[in-house]
Write a structure and sequence with these properties.
It is a single chain. This protein has 378 residues and is mostly beta strands. The strands form seven sheets. Strands 2, 3, 4, 5 and 6 form a five-stranded antiparallel beta sheet that branches. Strands 1-27-26-25 form a four-stranded antiparallel beta sheet, with no helix packed on it. A hairpin with a 5-residue loop joins strand 8 and strand 9. The longest helix has 8 residues.
């Protein structure tokens, strides 16, 4: 194991660990190929329960902390909070400040959090000269959550300039309300909206269900249990989703950049490529591009990014991801929707909660215990 940090100890948040996994079962990765690159993890900062991050203006990286603060990463670590909504959110279950994103022009900053009632909320702030303008804050979208888990919460702009929002199935266990396959709710979905095209937002006219009166216009894809982290390949525009499983299978879902949307990833009829509790596979089911069972040390997939940086040449084109419970930094080589190689980078990031891609394509690993580490060449 090659890890370079100021401290090797990861202070686990045990309550969150239990709520994120809802199980003590574990995951087994199939035998890995040789590592595609020799890397180390270099600790660059410590945070208070970091949950997400985004590339910001002027080459900065903005880090979200679960309790409600956002801080900018600099050469000396994290600066003072540039935003603090800690009085407006709650951290019970899997709630809190869960996602952050900038629009492509860095003109607006978006946050995804659960309010004091547990409602998922997307807010927008104007950005001027790299500075957040708190007085411009407005709410773009809300979604009530029936339970305190499976809220999802990741947000990201796609190559098309639209904002994508990931919501889990609403929580509890086994999707008791059938939200995953129900097109009449935004729960268990990946949404696609134009936050600047209307008040409070507009729906792109080419969203796949805009002509279906029984479906939510905002839906881009469905059949998701808890799409905790998703990303777009900066090189190809392909979409990758790490969808946390129920009790047996963790999955990575994939869609090509030219997809018209509408993919059904199967939950809760399916868990990965397997029928869930006697479910019948939907005719339009899109199986995962990769899955692993819980026979080893993992239990909750943490989706990452396809590496497009310059620091680690051998890693370019590999999808980098992890698992919250085993912390191993893993890789997939995906070509035309097929996995052509699996790898293990030989480094362990602690309880990996998220990855962050900076403006140069370099990747950072966030551990719930506080570590922010960059993937560097060995």
């Amino acid at each position: 194991m090659k890890v370079r940090t100021r401290s090797s100890a990861i202070i686990g948040a045990l309550v969150l660990a239990a709520s994120l996994t809802l199980t003590t079962a574990a995951a087994q990765e199939p035998p890995a190929t040789e590592p595609p690159a020799e890397v180390v993890l270099t600790e660059v900062a410590r945070a208070q329960t970091p949950t997400a991050g985004a590339a910001g203006p002027d080459g900065t990286v903005w880090i979200a902390e679960r309790a409600g603060t956002v801080r900018v990463l600099g050469d000396g670590g994290l600066g003072a909070p540039v935003l603090d909504i800690s009085a407006e959110t709650t951290t019970d279950g899997e709630r809190g400040l869960l996602g952050v994103a900038f629009d492509p022009e860095f003109a607006h900053f978006y946050i995804s959090y659960t309010d004091l009632e547990g409602t998922s909320t997307i807010d927008e702030f104007a950005v001027r000269d790299g500075q957040l303008r708190p007085e411009t804050r407005r709410t773009v979208l809300t979604q009530e959550q029936p339970y305190a888990n499976h809220n999802g919460g990741d947000i990201r702009f796609g190559p098309d300039g639209y904002l994508y929002i990931a919501f889990g199935d609403g929580g509890s266990g086994g999707d008791p309300h059938g939200n995953g396959q129900n097109l009449g709710t935004m729960l268990g979905k990946l949404l696609r909206i134009d936050p600047r095209g209307g008040e409070p937002y507009a729906v792109p006219s080419d969203n796949p269900f805009v002509a279906d009166e029984n479906a939510k216009d905002e839906i881009w894809a469905y059949g998701l249990r808890n799409p905790w982290r998703f990303s777009f390949d900066a090189g190809t525009g392909d979409l990758l989703i790490g969808d946390v499983g129920q009790s047996e299978w963790e999955e990575i879902d994939w869609a090509p950049a030219d997809s018209p949307g509408g993919e059904n990833y199967g939950w809760s009829s399916m868990e990965g490529s397997h029928p869930f509790r006697g479910g019948t596979e939907p005719a339009n089911h899109v199986p995962p591009v990769h899955e692993y069972d819980r026979g080893g040390l993992g239990c909750s997939v943490t989706g990452g990014f396809v590496y497009r940086g310059e620091a680690v040449a051998d890693l370019v084109g590999h999808y980098v991801f992890s698992d919250y419970c085993d912390g191993t930094i893993r890789t997939l080589r995906i070509e035309d929707g097929e996995v052509t190689g699996e790898g293990d980078l030989g480094v362990e990031g602690g309880e990996v909660i998220s990855f962050v891609e900076d403006g140069d394509g370099e990747l950072y690993v966030l551990a719930i215990g506080g570590t922010i580490a960059r993937i560097d060449p060995a």
